[in-house]
Write a structure and sequence with these properties.
Elements: H1 6-20, E1 23-28, H2 51-55, H3 59-62, H4 65-70, H5 72-88, H6 93-103, E2 109-113, E3 131-133, E4 136-143, E5 151-152, H7 155-159, E6 173-178, E7 186-195, E8 202-205, E9 211-213, E10 218-220, E11 245-249, H8 260-274, E12 281-287, H9 295-310, E13 315-322, E14 334-339, H10 343-358
Parallel strand pairs: 1-2, 1-12, 2-3, 12-13, 13-14
Antiparallel strand pairs: 4-5, 4-11, 6-7, 6-10, 7-8, 8-9
Helix pairs in contact: 1-10, 6-10
Length: 364
């Protein structure tokens, strides 16, 4: 007897669209990396960098090129954390599943992603030739002013950046760096300035228990090193000429991003799309792309609509996999929402159904 569970029905519909497709576009956002141990920027799986809570800064504020100009050691501490997290983690099984689906389609597949971890380039069946990293990647560097070449990241330049570990305990007394003083930022301490219950937020209460979280431009144990910055003795990354460098990542409010590498990727992507026949049955599998930074979500939805209008003899289906934001709305082409589960769980369930259909067993 067929299942009447809405999620099961959506999975069955999605598996049919994938198994019957001639080509596939894979669109991924931050939610795709959760099963590789990477935090998202917002929502229930948020978890980027502990000092952000102490500094009372949003992820977007730290992911801004101005920080490299105004506070380069804090900027590099943040990006070192991200580089180390992304490059030491591995693409989870869901990447392999998607790559395998696409490799079995006559038109193949292409990955478009807003993620900067470089995981798709490391995925069999995808690689550099079939990846469009729309926001750049931490696998490459550029000059601060946006001029000159783009070059592969030298891990050794990150290894020499020493940032004291954030190992504070709730209730521990600390000194904080305060801005707004005429003499510039000054370290200050008070018996009431302590680490909050979450181990990151800094709080201060008077003798009557009045107070709460306070913004700290820096945090240290009394007399110790700043836990929010690269140690002062470490040289910051430069290019071969000694010019200051930065990750080749499109940041918020970024007017100095060097887009040469992703422009080349985009051209390869467009050539692949243009080379698909008019009758092609295209499936777009979008995974973990939210609405806060809607680059991938908009690209996938827009592609389905364009394909359906421009190639009516073909077929276009959007499969949106998202833990909390799976709604697909209305528009041209077929749209299927798979919600309530993370990327890996959804892809594993779909893979079983896709294999059964491709082997002629259908979908129960």
């Amino acid at each position: 007897m067929a299942s009447t569970n809405p999620t099961d029905s959506a999975l069955a519909e999605a598996a049919k669209a994938i198994a019957d497709a001639d080509a596939m576009v894979i669109g991924t956002g931050a939610g795709m990396g959760v099963d590789s141990g990477l935090g998202t920027f917002r929502g229930r799986n948020a978890g980027v960098w502990m000092p952000l809570k102490a500094m009372q800064q949003d992820f977007a504020e730290m992911s801004c090129p101005d920080v490299f100009e105004e506070d380069p050691r804090a900027a590099w501490a943040f990006w070192k954390f991200r580089h180390d997290a992304y490059t030491t983690s591995s693409p989870h099984e869901g990447y392999r599943i998607l790559g395998e689906w696409g490799s079995n389609m006559r038109g193949g597949c292409f990955s478009i992603t807003s993620n900067i971890d470089g995981h798709w380039v490391r995925t069999p069946g995808i690689g550099e030739a079939r990846t469009y990293e729309m926001h750049g990647a931490l696998t490459h560097m550029q000059r601060m002013d946006g001029t000159g070449p783009i070059w592969p990241t030298d891990a050794a330049q990150y290894e020499i950046l020493k940032v004291p570990p954030w190992d504070l305990s709730p209730g521990e007394g600390v000194e904080i760096l305060k801005r707004g003083n005429k003499r510039g930022p000054q370290w200050g301490s008070a018996a009431a300035t302590k680490v909050g219950d979450d181990g990151a937020t800094i709080v201060s209460y008077d003798g009557e228990g009045v107070g709460g979280p306070v913004a700290a431009a820096g945090v240290r144990r009394p007399g110790g090193p700043d836990l929010c910055r690269v140690s002062s003795g470490c040289a910051l990354p430069t290019d071969g000429t000694g010019a200051p460098s930065r990750p080749n990542v499109l940041m918020f409010g970024d007017g100095m991003f060097n887009g040469d590498r992703i422009d080349e990727q985009e051209q390869r992507y467009k050539r692949w799309l243009d080379g698909l026949p008019p009758t092609c049955r295209l499936v777009v599998v979008e995974v973990g792309a939210g609405t806060a930074v809607p680059t991938i979500r908009s690209s996938c939805s827009g592609l389905i609509g364009q394909w359906a209008r421009a190639r009516p003899e073909g077929h276009a289906t959007l499969v949106r996999i998202n833990l909390d934001q799976s709604e697909v709305g209305s528009g041209d082409g077929e749209r299927i929402a798979v919600g309530g589960m993370g990327a890996l769980e959804a892809l594993q369930k779909l893979d079983r159904l896709v294999r059964a259909r491709r082997q002629g067993g259908g979908v129960a």
